[in-house]
Each structure stands twice: as C-alpha cells, then as structure tokens.
Amino acid sequence: MTAIIYYLFLTHIVCYWISVLFYTYKFNQWSQESWYVVKNVLLNQFLITPLYWALFLYYPEPFPYYHVVWQLPAIVVLTDFIFYACHRVFHLNKTLYVHVHEQHHEYDPPIAPAALYSHPIEHLCINLSSTIFPMFIVKASLPVALLWTTIASINVVVAHSGIHGGQHTSHHRYKTCNYGVGLMLFDRVSGTFR
C-alpha cells in the first residue's frame, strides 16, 4: 500500500504545479509576493500532507478499477459534501475563520498560485480530508485514485485562477456562498449557491 502514497503524491505535485505554471504564465498571475505563496503551498504539500500518509496503512482492499463507473461520481459527491461541511464550519466559527481560514481569503479574486495557499490546519481539515476520505470510502483502486488525484489537483488551480469567473471566485468575493466544490450540490440544497 505504500506505493499508492508515492504515486498519488507525485501525481498531485506534477498536476498541481504544471497547472499553476500554465495559468501563471498564460494570464500573468505572478507578483513579488508570489514567492511567499509558493513557499506556503510547498510547506503544506511537503510537511503537512505527509501527516495523512499513515492512514494509507489502513487503506481498504480496493475494488477492481472498472468500478470507476460508479466510484468517480461517488467521489465527486462525497468530496463536495466533505468540503462543503468543513469549509462552512471554518466560515461559521469566528475563531477558525479569523485565525485559520482568513489566510486563504487574502486573494480576491483568487489567483492560481494561491490555490492551496492556506493555514496548515485548513490544509489538513479541508483540502486533504475532502480529497482523500472519498477514495477510502469507495475503496478506489490505484487507477481510480490516480484519476481522481489528477482531476482534483487541476480543478483546485482552475477554480482559483479567477480567469473563468465561476463559483469559487464568487465565494472569495462574497464569503457567504459557494462553500462546496464541483457540482455544488450541497450549496444548492442549503440555499448558499450563487
């Protein structure tokens, strides 16, 4: 099971940074403070993300890869639910917002290099939990987990690029809507979709 850790981590790093470089270069999203942002993201990726690696010692026996037909949609819905719930808590609790989550909201509109710019607690509780736990829940095989990691790593950059408008740009602007990701099902059900 340790192989899955390295494959997923390497896939995330490559997909994330290629996407960041693409948006940064294409849309000129680089500034003096970007180095500070990059340093924060790298610290989260290389010091905080490994805290989750121990969980992979308990990774369930995966279903065969052809289960992707139902697993990928299930992962998308589970990710939206977990991200929505955790993200909403960080907005509703003033202490968590001011001391943890507000750091991520320094960029309005968001920019690609700051897609994972966050406090380490937020990186653990929101970013990683919403991406990793769905893979455990559906018992994703390595090919499905790699596909999901690729999608999630690129999507977080696209959502924060600020180029396409979009739901997450509205979240950074208004801070009272669009707490989820992807399909935004739980925002739609909860009346927080804008």
Please explain how this structure is put together.
- With 194 residues, this protein is an all-alpha fold.
- The protein has one domain.
- Helix 3 runs antiparallel to helix 5.
- The model has no long low-confidence stretch (mean pLDDT 93).
Main features:
194 residues, mainly alpha, 8 helices, 63% helix
How confident is the prediction overall: mean pLDDT? 93
Q: What summary fits the major beta sheet?
A: none
The span between the termini is 41 Å
Strand content: under 5%
Total beta strands: 0
Order of helices and strands: HHHHHHHH
Shape: globular
Q: Roughly how much helix do the residues carry, as a percent range?
A: 55-70%
Question: Structural class given helices, strands, pairing?
Answer: mainly alpha
Number of helical stretches of at least 4 residues: 8
Uncertain stretches: none
Radius of gyration: 16 Å
Integer tally of domains: 1
What is shown here, in short?
The protein has 194 residues and is mainly α. The chain has one domain (2-190).
Secondary structure: elements and pairs:
Blueprint: H1 2-26, H2 34-48, H3 68-92, H4 94-99, H5 120-137, H6 142-160, H7 167-174, H8 185-190
